[in-house]
Design goal:
Length: 389
């Protein structure tokens, strides 16, 4: 066997480091011997990589459990408070931001309204919010591992470019580089639903699921797909546009300019405008007013129809993708049993034989900080070189 050149060795070292960190994240605490058994790496490789991780502060060791005679084994675990991350959710009218530790635990949450969403305004505001979060939490800036930002649109994650966002009216904006220049730490951007899927895979219901679909319902409808443990983005970052799959040939006009998209029937704004058409006498202006009238037969039928449409779209997604778990989150989890009951029925009715029988469909009640926390997890996964992105 030829000997490894310096370059190859550093690649091997990085791969080993990645493998060991991922093992500790998912199954830790573990002893060095257990790491060796699980990974198949040599004892020498384990020793070297673990020493490096301890030096970096990312892994800590402690004696756990009394052993009968002899020294108790030293157990290794990830030190989640070694660094912090900041996550942003960029919306049409504001920025939500959180500061988290490396396990995604939120230490502070702030919001700022945005008068407009030019890249310059977004970068300036995000930069000053980062400073404010660090000050609020008393974290020195050299402990900030990175920043993540989730936004609605098609994102080239590798280049850090927002290729297209109709919400923000952006085309080809190199937002990650602009933020890096202003804040001075690595920045990862992604589609907001993909960011949430990454968070679910890292810290949530998807921790032990290799194939899952995370679906957001609210202002829009979207999905983030995790395949073989990684977020699946497709050729140009556009995978998972569930809201723009067709639910009605030549149907209602969607914000995207096409006709008959699911989002034009079953998102919260679509529900409000359909309610105005169906029941003008009720004068429904908000989703809360709509839910207050859920006893009205016309509104009940509307919620049922919308839920069925999403459930049918999910059946198609299940047939194409065969996930082991579906997690539904977003503001729309408030839509209640009429919507989600019919969603579940339509999913089971329409999925190919057997694929949806034992498929868990979990509703995740989201706090105000959930989207921004998802974005922080992008930075966290980059810190750990985790096998998510
Ligand atoms: Zn559309």
């Amino acid at each position: 066997m030829r000997s490894l050149r310096g370059n190859d060795q550093s690649v091997v070292r990085a791969l080993n480091r990645n493998a060991i960190l991922n093992m500790l994240l998912r199954n830790g605490p573990l002893s060095r011997v257990q790491l060796k058994d699980h990974s198949g790496l040599s004892g020498a490789a384990i020793t070297a990589v673990v020493a490096e991780l301890i030096e970096d502060g990312l892994v800590e060791e402690q004696a756990i459990g009394a052993s009968t005679g002899g020294r108790p084994p030293m157990m290794l675990s990830v030190n989640y408070s070694a660094r912090t991350a900041v996550g942003f959710k960029l919306m049409e009218r504001g920025l939500d931001a959180v500061l988290t530790n490396l396990s995604g635990e939120v230490h502070a949450h702030i919001h700022r309204d945005l008068p407009e969403t030019s890249p310059e305004t977004v970068v300036r505001t995000a930069s000053s919010m980062t400073t404010e979060l660090l000050r609020q939490c008393g974290v020195p800036s050299d402990r900030l591992a990175g920043v993540g930002m989730g936004l609605s649109g098609v994102i080239d994650v590798v280049a850090g470019v927002c290729t297209h966002s109709s919400y923000l009216q952006w085309r080809n904006v190199p937002i990650a580089a602009l933020l890096e220049q202003a804040i001075g730490v690595p920045v990862v951007i992604d589609n907001d639903v993909n960011a949430f899927a990454a968070a679910e895979r890292l810290f949530g219901h998807g921790r032990h699921a290799l194939h899952l679909a995370v679906v957001s319902v609210g202002r829009g409808i979207g999905s983030g797909l995790v395949a073989n443990g990684r977020v699946y983005r497709g050729a140009s970052g556009g995978a998972g546009e569930l809201g723009h799959t067709v639910t009605e040939r030549r149907g209602r006009l969607c914000d995207c300019g096409k006709l008959g998209c699911l989002e034009a029937y079953a998102s919260e704004p679509a529900l409000v405008s359909r309610a105005q058409e169906l029941a003008a006498d009720l004068n429904i202006l908000t989703i809360q007013m709509l839910l207050d009238h859920a006893a009205d037969a016309r509104i009940a039928a509307l919620l049922t129809d919308a839920g069925e449409r999403v459930g049918t779209a999910l059946a198609n997604l299940v047939n194409l993708f065969n996930p082991e778990l579906i997690v539904i989150g977003g503001e729309g989890v408030r839509l209640g049993e009429l919507y989600f009951g019919s969603l579940r029925r339509a999913l089971r009715e329409n999925a190919f034989d057997g694929l949806a029988n034992d498929l868990p469909v979990l509703l995740e009640p989201w706090g105000d900080d959930a989207w921004a926390r998802g974005a922080a997890s992008l930075a966290i996964s980059r810190t750990f070189d985790m096998e998510v992105n």
